[in-house]
């Protein structure tokens, strides 16, 4: 007589091993831009001139991709320090874009009870990095003109004593530079309670000021300041190079949580090439700033549209019906970003990337048709 087959064990759900809060999160959304004028992600619209593109291709062909990244990564750090004008006593570390650096900062500061604080609305990765690392996040609303609410921010620093205070300069998505006096007072309060202040300068190529100028003028008050930048807006969004600058002792500790070889040899070589041709990228940034001025002037003439001042390569614009305008512009071949759902203060707001002249004409025509 045959023995009965053993009962099959109950099948477990592999998703049960994934954190519940992660399952409840929304992934960072990247819009499908196929066939559209892509003005949703603050990318530099300009490519390299043909002769430089050829030179870059020839140079990348010589990179030993069979080896792990080597001394050229150190060469890139040296070149970035020179480009940024690194203050005396400071050092820098590299990230796979500034997104990785934001995650590494949360990891490095993850002690019991630690928190991250930032104005709101601002870059979504500040809050996401806190959630993924299990830190508390506190967002302090900006004023109705997207300026810092200094009193509320000071109260929040005193109450929560955050390990990290993020100040995007210029801010995303509002694109403005905040009052330097307010910034300095917030940084002083954060320093006094023992926290780190991170000035995120992702849009530095298009801004009138950089906080690194303040650090050089008043180095004594910058012991707890970190300045973060990226080459994405510089013109290398596809290369993924971010860099974090601060006191050498501080950077040395944060750098311990960085994965080995986080910057590829190809990316490092591409970034070195770009820095060697900084004059070309400066020319491109000047074109973007000129187009930004023309866009702001044109938007000011559109009934029902409020365009906010910009020091970045984007413009925040409030329209009568953002969902309708977004859909209408997309139907006309232009993709922008509807940021209305990001924060209540952004109701009916679109974020418009500054493109090349022809792209901007198409964007304005499409927006006008939807009003």
Short descriptors:
371 residues; alpha/beta; Aspartate Aminotransferase, domain 1; Aspartate Aminotransferase, domain 2; 2 domains; seven-stranded mixed sheet; four-stranded antiparallel sheet; 13 strands
What does this structure look like?
The structure is a single chain. With 371 residues, this protein is an alpha/beta fold. It has two domains: 111 residues, Aspartate Aminotransferase, domain 1 (Alpha-Beta Complex), CATH 3.90.1150; 212 residues, Type I PLP-dependent aspartate aminotransferase-like (Major domain) (Aspartate Aminotransferase, domain 2, 3-Layer(aba) Sandwich). The chain contains 14 helices and 13 strands. The strands form three sheets. It has a seven-stranded mixed β-sheet with strand order 2-8-7-6-5-3-4, sandwiched between helices. A four-stranded antiparallel β-sheet has the order 9-10-13-12. A hairpin with a 6-residue loop joins strand 9 and strand 10. Helix 3 runs parallel beside helix 11, helix 4 crosses helix 5 and helix 6 runs parallel beside helix 7. It is globular and about 80 Å long.
């Amino acid at each position: 007589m045959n023995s009965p087959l053993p009962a099959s064990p109950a099948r477990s759900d592999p998703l049960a091993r994934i954190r519940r809060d992660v399952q409840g999160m929304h992934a960072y959304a990247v819009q499908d831009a196929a066939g559209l004028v892509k003005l949703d992600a603050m990318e530099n619209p300009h490519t390299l001139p043909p002769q430089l593109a050829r030179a870059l291709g020839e140079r990348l062909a010589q990179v030993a991709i069979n080896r792990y990244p080597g001394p050229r990564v150190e060469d890139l750090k040296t070149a970035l320090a020179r480009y940024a004008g690194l203050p005396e006593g400071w050092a820098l570390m590299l990230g796979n874009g500034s997104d990785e650096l934001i995650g590494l900062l949360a990891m490095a500061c993850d002690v019991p009870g630690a928190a991250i604080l930032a104005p709101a609305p601002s870059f979504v990765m500040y809050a996401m990095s806190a959630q993924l690392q299990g830190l508390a996040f506190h967002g302090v609303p900006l004023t109705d003109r997207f300026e810092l609410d200094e009193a509320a921010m000071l109260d929040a620093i005193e109450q929560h004593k955050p390990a990290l205070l993020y100040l995007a300069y210029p801010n995303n998505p509002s694109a403005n530079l905040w009052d330097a006096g307010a910034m300095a007072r917030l940084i002083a309060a954060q320093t006094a309670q023992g926290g780190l202040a991170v000035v995120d300068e992702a849009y530095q190529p298009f801004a009138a000021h950089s906080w690194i100028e303040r650090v050089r003028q008043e180095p004594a008050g910058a012991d707890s300041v970190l300045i973060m930048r990226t080459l994405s807006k510089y013109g290398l969004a596809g290369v993924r190079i971010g860099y974090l600058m601060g006191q050498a002792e501080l950077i040395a500790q944060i750098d311990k949580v960085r994965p080995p070889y986080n910057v590829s040899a190809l990316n490092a070589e591409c970034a070195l090439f770009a820095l060697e041709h900084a004059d070309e990228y400066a020319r491109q940034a000047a074109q973007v700033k000129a187009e930004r001025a023309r866009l702001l002037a044109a938007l000011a003439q559109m009934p029902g549209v409020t365009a906010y001042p910009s020091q970045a390569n984007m413009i925040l614009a409030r329209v009568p019906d953002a969902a309708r305008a977004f859909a209408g512009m997309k139907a006309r071949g232009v993709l922008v970003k509807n940021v209305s759902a990001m924060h209540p203060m952004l109701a009916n707001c679109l974020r418009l990337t500054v493109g090349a002249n022809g792209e901007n004409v198409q964007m304005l025509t499409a927006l006008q048709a939807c009003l």
